Every structure is written in structure tokens, then in C-alpha cells.
């Protein structure tokens, strides 16, 4: 149970983890964001709050650099979506036909039609919706969205999501530090 408590409050433990593990924090964060975006069963991991917290940490701690963290987060989220896309592309029939899911063919057909019309927008906007973020690339793969189209919107969405949330956290951390020192 302590593991799940730690996992759900990971962003609050960042300063302690940085002090104890140093630059290994980059790898921990990469893994958490990769799992949240790359595994359809890891939707409960903290994505948005973690990015905001990391941005604030970058503003207040000298050993975590904003540019390096941006690159790590961009790679982890883009690679996570690619893994989730391929999971949907190759394994969706097996996953959706197992006895735990009650998915009818008409729902799959509607999803396919939706991705034909709004696939790119969905990939970008899903980054900002916690539960949907995990399932959008899976649905894109299972609906047969072309890989070049997917990868374009994946990279664009990753840049927007990481840039916006990390930037907001950084500005918030800088403002807090400025107010504290004033």
C-alpha cells in the first residue's frame, strides 16, 4: 500500500527524491511519464501535476535544468504514445475481445469514423485530458490512423503539453521564489 501512496503523491516527494537520488530523478520521471502515456492500464499515474511540479522544481533547484528536463519529458511522452499506438495497432483485437471488456463492434466502428474525421485534433487535445490521454493513441492505432499522420500530431501534442505545463510550473516556481526572497 505504501507504494501506491508514494506513486499518487510522487510530485510532493520530488525534492526529497532529488536530494537522495540526484540526477537519477531524470530516469524516474522518464519512466513514470512513459508508462502513463504508453500503457493503457496506467492511466492513474500523475501526468499534469507532475509536469507542473517539475517545472517549479526546475525554477527553484540548480541541479535540475529546464532544457534537459524538457528533452527528457518530450522523449518520454512521444515514445509512450508511439508504444501505445503500436499496442492498439497490433493487439487491440486481443485486448478488446478479452472477457474484461464489453466492447461492441458498433462502438469500434464509431471510433474508427471519429478518428478518420478528428484524429489529429484528438491526439493533440487528449494530452490535456488525464484519462483520455492514455487511450487516444491506443484508439488511433486500433482505428488504423496512418503512422505519418499520427507521428506528426504526436510530436506536436508532446511539444505543447510538455512546453505549456512545464513552463507554467517554471513560472509558478520562479514567482514563488521571487515572493519568498522579497
Helix-strand layout with pairing:
Blueprint: H1 2-8, H2 14-21, H3 25-38, H4 48-60, H5 66-96, H6 105-125, H7 130-142, H8 147-181
Helix content: over 70%
Please, what is the average pLDDT? Answer: 82
Total number of helices = 8
Give the percentage of residues in beta strands: under 5%
What is the string of SSEs from the N terminus onward?
Answer: HHHHHHHH
Oligomer: single chain
Q: Can you count the beta strands?
A: 0
Cα Rg: 18 Å
The helix-and-strand class reads mainly alpha
User: Which residues form runs of ≥5 with pLDDT under 50?
Assistant: none
Specify the overall morphology.
Answer: elongated
Instruction: Domain count, please report it.
Output: 1
Distance between the termini: 41 Å
Main beta-sheet annotation: none
Based on the model shown, name its key terms.
mainly alpha; 182 residues
Please describe what this structure looks like.
The chain is mainly alpha-helical. The protein has one domain. The protein is 78% helix and 0% strand. The chain has 8 helices and no strands. It has helices spanning 2-8, 14-21, 25-38, 48-60, 66-96, 105-125, 130-142, 147-181. The radius of gyration is 18 Å and the shape is elongated. The N and C termini lie far apart (41 Å).
Concise description?
The protein is mainly α. The protein is built from eight helices and no strands.
Amino acid at each position: 500500500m505504501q507504494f501506491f501512496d508514494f506513486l499518487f503523491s510522487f510530485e510532493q516527494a520530488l525534492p526529497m527524491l532529488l536530494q537522495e537520488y540526484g540526477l537519477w530523478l531524470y530516469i524516474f520521471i522518464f519512466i513514470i511519464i512513459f508508462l502513463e502515456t504508453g500503457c493503457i492500464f496506467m492511466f492513474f499515474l500523475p501526468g499534469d501535476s507532475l509536469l507542473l511540479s517539475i517545472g517549479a522544481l526546475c525554477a527553484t533547484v540548480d541541479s535540475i535544468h529546464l532544457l534537459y528536463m524538457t528533452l527528457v519529458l518530450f522523449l518520454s511522452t512521444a515514445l509512450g504514445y508511439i508504444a501505445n499506438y503500436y499496442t492498439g495497432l497490433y493487439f487491440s483485437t486481443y485486448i478488446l475481445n478479452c472477457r474484461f471488456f464489453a466492447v461492441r463492434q458498433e462502438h469500434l466502428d464509431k471510433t474508427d469514423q471519429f478518428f478518420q474525421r478528428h484524429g489529429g485534433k484528438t491526439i493533440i487535445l487528449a494530452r490535456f485530458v488525464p484519462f483520455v490521454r492514455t487511450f487516444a493513441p491506443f484508439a488511433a492505432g486500433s482505428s488504423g490512423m496512418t503512422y505519418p499522420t499520427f507521428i506528426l500530431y504526436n510530436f506536436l501534442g508532446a511539444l505543447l503539453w510538455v512546453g505549456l505545463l512545464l513552463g507554467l510550473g517554471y513560472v509558478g516556481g520562479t514567482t514563488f521564489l521571487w515572493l519568498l526572497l522579497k
